[in-house]
Structure prediction request, 359 residues.
Amino acid sequence: MMVAAVLLLVGLALSAFFSGSETGFYRVTRVRLVIAAVDGDRISRGLLALTNSPAVFVATTMVGNNLANYLTSLGVVLLTKEMFSGPAAITELAATILFSPLVFVYGEMLPKNLYFHAPNLLLRRSAPAFLCFAVLFAPISALLWFFGWLLQAMLGETPLRVKPALARKELREVLQEGQEAGLLSPSQRQMAENVFDIGGGLVESFCRPESQILTVSEDASRDQILQLAKRYRKSIVAVRSRRTRAWAGYLRVVDLLLDDRPISRVMRPVMPLRRGETLIRALLRMQSDQVAVAQVLDPNGKSHGLLYASDIIDRMVRNRAGRLPTPAFPKLVRPAAQAERSLQRDPAIRSSGSSQADD
Prediction:
């Protein structure tokens, strides 16, 4: 009787494990699985590999459920014979009445319900055992995988694979669920969507061309630079070398007001960026190095323009279009004719079109 009880309990445990794991695989949050796999978690990588190999996953589940059903049935038969010594028909009827609710509730319904409500937690804890069973059942799974591959070759179709990259539509759905659950406010959701929309763009599509950059020569005086910045309402002024006409750096108005050192010591260098780099990567590099202006260079070293970190941040905060916006830099408000002529007479200062907003 002890052997029959052990077989029944082992069969119920295996049935609950494979039935719940099957539900957990279909209910697990893909975002968490992909992020954990990219972060280097081995268990998540194994689960992601099984998700990308549906034939192996289905074969492991089917073999496990059949093994569980066989052990459960054997345990029920042996235990019934020990408990009842009557005719075979009565024994079969008693076994059906006594053990069917037990097997249905504890071997199928309860584990499926638990995995349905907590798929991430339970699948995470049961994943090592499932991966071990996948290796143990590999000979049978390989046979099923071969037939699945043969069918795919004949039909010319491949199963949908989960890549470690999330589509924009899926990200929007996740953000919407977060807002509905109260985890995100509408403004936070909009900002997150803007980050994904803008972050994938390229730096050359967002940098300012040279004709729309407020520029001074490197030998301009402090008063001249402050006068020009005040007139055009700019907090950053680009500096160009008088001899080579290349970008020598940039000046912040706040540094000019608070730092009495020579302008060459106050000037900050421009970070070089390669054309084709994404905006989010460029912004992270600029924030890490505390650089406000970067120069976008072609593969041959030719300047494509200047990229301002404030332009990227401004579009991330203010954009509501739901698509990658194209930056528009309005022309400067033209100064009075007399002031403009006085600026033009000074060869150390050269101004061109730029936006009115602060950098």
Q: What stands out?
A: Residues 54-83 form the longest helix (30 residues). The chain has a mean pLDDT of 76. The CA atoms of residues 25 and 123 lie 7 Å apart. The beta strands are 215-217, 236-240, 247-252, 271-274, 293-297, 303-308, 349-350.
